[in-house]
Amino acid sequence: MDDWTVTVNGRSRSLHDVAPHTSALDWLRAQGLTGAKEGCAEGECGACSVLLATPDGADGTAWTAVNSCLVPAAALDGQEVVTAEGLGTPESMHPVQAALAAAGGSQCGYCTPGFACSMAAEFYRAGRATGGADASTDDAAPTDDAVAFDLHALAGNLCRCTGYRPIRDAAEGLGVPDADDPLAERRSHPAPAVVATSLEAGGARFVRPASLDDALARLADEPDATVIAGSTDWGVEVNLRGRRAPLTVAIDRLPELRAFAVDDAGIELGAALTLSEVGRLLDGRAPLLDDLLPQFASPLIRNRATLGGNLGTASPIGDAAPALLALEARLVLVAADGEREVDLAEYFTGYRTTVRRPGELIRAVRIPLPLAPLTGFHKVAKRRYDDISSVAVAFALDVGADGVVASARIGLGGVAATPIRARATEAVLVGRRWDLDTVRDAASVLGSEGTPMSDHRASAEYRALMLNRSLLKLYRSARPEEVVPA
Amino acid sequence: MSDLAARPEGAMVGAALPHESAARHATGTAVYTDDLAAGRHDVLTAWPVQSEHAHALVSLDVGPALEVPGVVRVLTAADVPGENDAGAKHDEPLFPAEAMFHGHALAWILGETPEAARLGAAAVRVGYEPLPSIVTVGEAIEAGSFQGIAPTVRRGDAQAALAGAPHVFEGVSEVNGQEHFYLETHASLAHVDSEGQVFVESSTQHPSETQEIVAHVLGVPNHRVTVQSLRLGGGFGGKEMQPHGFAAIAALGATLTGRPVRVRLTRTQDLTMTGKRHPFHATWRAGFDEEGRILALEATLTSNGGWCLDLSEPVLGRALCHVDNAYWIPDLTVQGRIAKTNLTSQTAFRGFGGPQGMFVIEDILGRVAPLLGIDPAELRERNLYRPGQTTPYGQPVRHAERLHEEWARVRAESRFDERRAAIAAFNDAHPDVKRALAITPVKFGISFTFTAYNQAGALVHVYKDGSVLVNHGGTELGQGLHTKMLQVAATALGVRMSAVRLAPTRTDKVPNTSATAASSGADLNGAAVKDACDQIRGRMAPVAARLLGIDEADVRFAAGRVSGPDPDGTSLGFDEVAEAAYADRVQLFAAGFYRTEGLGWEPGAMQGHPFKYFAYGVAASEVEVDGFTGATRLLRTDIVHDVGDSLSPIIDLGQVEGAFMQGVGWLALEELRWDTSDGPGRGRLLTQSASTYKLPSFSELPDELNVHFLERATEDGAVYGSKAVGEPPFMLAFSVREAIREAVAAFGPEGYSVELGSPATPEAVFWAIEAARAAREATGEPGAPSTPAAPELAGLPAAALRRR
Lengths: 486, 804
Known about the structure:
The complex is a heterodimer. By secondary structure, chain A is α+β, with helices and mostly antiparallel strands. Chain A is built from 18 helices and 20 strands. In chain A, a hairpin with a 6-residue loop joins β19 and β20. In chain B, the strands form seven sheets. An eight-stranded mixed sheet of chain B has the order 3-5-1-12-9-10-11-20, with helices on both faces. The relative contact order of chain B is 0.13.
């Protein structure tokens, strides 16, 4: 079977001879579609942004913007891609392209195709605008929230020339898709089905198993395989550090890993749900995660990155772990010989090492309910949008009606070889009144948790003080009704 | 008004047109250098072998690379038929025997694929004999490691003036470098054509110099090499001198293999191999009178030039000529010198030393205002140049009144005083968050200080059908030069925009061009295009006069029609006149030329008239600083900037806003970190990717950004009354740094002088806040508890400000 194909801008193209390490970006460019550009090859600049047709959670399709530099071309087997060239042409521009061009939204133009794709994804976002019969006319400025353009959609795209103001104006001036817009219309049909893929080129293999059982069986046979979900971390290893895997196994579309369930005991989040999907599915149920998710990289990354991936790489600066530690999350690990559940706090064993055994996958993350009422996620970084944490602190506190701290769980990132719980601080807080004296005492303990280091992001001294200040900041910002329930 | 500045009726200059390539940008169909290579199977990829030592003698064993499948050839010094040099100063060996910085390219591998070339480069065995290295300016000063010129700008007797000044302050100011981070990394694609011409596509701001370097590496005359610059995915000065070596590698590979060769740097290669903005270190003494007027300044500026000279000398010269920024300083002695260190070769970057020079005086004013007990806005306004005054290097500050006009307008339009009162109330009510509003000016000199560069050429063809093809010597880096040139040509010939096409910049059309740099692209090339068009129109006018039966002096060209004085009278199409002129054997093409008049500069004495004119701007910015983390947010900026009479308002607005934001990045975010330890990684750039070197994103855009042009601002000495705009607005960003400083001061006691690290990252701001809080605590005023002093890492100036 060698009919690996991708539909690009409505035309079917063969993936024949594509090496597993070849990115969608390089493959598209080799096809002559040079609109997508390489600006950084690590998902930081968005110049390579393209649109993928993905399931919208119902029976339709969402146009999802992704960094094509981080998506293996082989992972596109059977899928649909739209690039800037597919949105429109100079003679017949797409509305987002026309808006960018007219507003002075391009100068050197190198980042512009990527901006066009990120803007188009937001233009077509379900719920932003329904389109159809009451689509607004050209001169209709967006007036209500349903049409408003969420500028955070562009947080993963860098422009070095314009200073962004004209791009903001172009985005905010967009209306809704025309009734006969083909990409809008495409949304009402199902996304392309997942295709089991087995592809070999240049002595390396790329496999997308058909089922979890298939995946586990293969990993049992070949435990050294590189497992990828959104590939937002592995893609960087491939591009920047030249890492190559003899066998890459893609698990991001396995239905068993994409469950979402809520009951009285807790929330179960499938490990292969993207962070964007997690946010949509939670729909405000977990305020701490609502705090976290907009600060997690950029939408282009969140559209691919998964909780399982973020915990699987076990980076000490991954932002999901501190929040999940504060929520006392547990991981469901699955292998060919069965499942087990581990406390996330017991999961990390050292720098990028965990209790996960070869051949074992993270199937789901379980968050026990009820959630602590007072939560906060504090990320300290150089830049507000799309940066890596110097320090991340997640709080989940329960202050009783008597004003005494009944429980406290604090997760920390960036201050040790692994994400950690601030247990000494928690111990200081529990049983004491939630007041400034307690907070000061606890903050001074918090400032000595972990073993922060100095590097190019921040000094050790600053990191330690940021721990200290984060609790003070939480105290200052907490509204009384959040702290002491009526 | 001069002929150069006067605009005809119906001029296309001044029309608000989008970028000429905007539709192609947005649809992904605008082609950049490396797009030409994509999908071509005959193209070889060149990949560098980079030094892993900051300074070492090297020996190469390339044999293992040749064993790697797909590796075609290794390029080393032995392959160079001409001069083994990639720089205009002859101090940049293309293939060095001595690695001069961590990341220095030592050899290049040609592979059938990027993968093969990369693996080949990794297979080369490099022997290192490490040598002592110098990384920081401080180390260079201590070791006496300098290079190039050490000029001094002098007026009056600063020493005597300081001795008599009522207030004298001294200190050290240090400012960081900056990575260009053009979104398109360096790229070249070369092949040898059927006639033996070496044709190089290069992402270069300086095609003629790229051509010259390629020719001297190949050992052939310049006429054998043609360089084309299609369009750049950003340049900002980073592609003025840096592209030459990459073009030479591609050209050398193509001549040796007979196949096209491409070089396209990865982001990390670009960051670790190419030059950046110079970091500067300054020591200074400044004297003030009782009213806060600057009486005298003595300063020594030391730039970190990196391993070779590159453009460090003119960058330093411009820094010295901008230490005054917009302020009258009666007695002044400013010395400059260039540290030679084992870093990348620092180079041109928007502002070209001007920002670093201005940083010194703005840092001084921001630090001493509280000590003088004068509001910083008031202190700055009092010292602005007034009409009739001259710069320390002897050039009259023509149009100094524009500074005052802009200052007043920004204050009024930003509701400066009203908002300041609101901010004071906000700060009183918020112990953990402080805001501030600051206003700063810019005066920036326009012209290359290397006088010979102030010339340009153009080649304009009018075809028989009336269509027009324009070639000129400038390159399109995104700044909209081509858009402006189309507007100039349409205006000068009186044709519609659709009648004019602009051909890619190439050295076989217009020779001996200057770099597209120093904001001069439109001034120089626009005047050259206009000259060519004026010549052609002058030859067509008699033809039209005969056809229309009118006097030649009465012929008018406008909007594609040629008519007499009465616009409703008989007229001809431009195409009809072109056809008739051809039949009359009239030359319908012309070479245009322009040289800037009135310049006179003695680089040795640092005296004279280096600039044709000054561009002026004023900005007011409001920031909010988080006392917990040091994070800042830019709330609002108001700008009034002088672009003369704009050639193209959308383009100019984009330049003002984009430059401002890039300046904000330099001053408040972007941080180059080098390994300064004695460990094995010494000299290595630590921030060598987009995940560690952060440039402004949407989050740095102010919530409100109001930009206006100064009105009635005709510049008589420039094409159609316009002014250069690329660089001057960059320095409007000082308003943001000064606002951060004032917001930090609000955490301290009354009259507290803030020393702010640069860049003012959250951490640097946090340490400044901690110092301010400690000072407040020391005075017994209420405030947050203080914490340990800042570590060295926070990048604070080493020497404290002292008052005498």
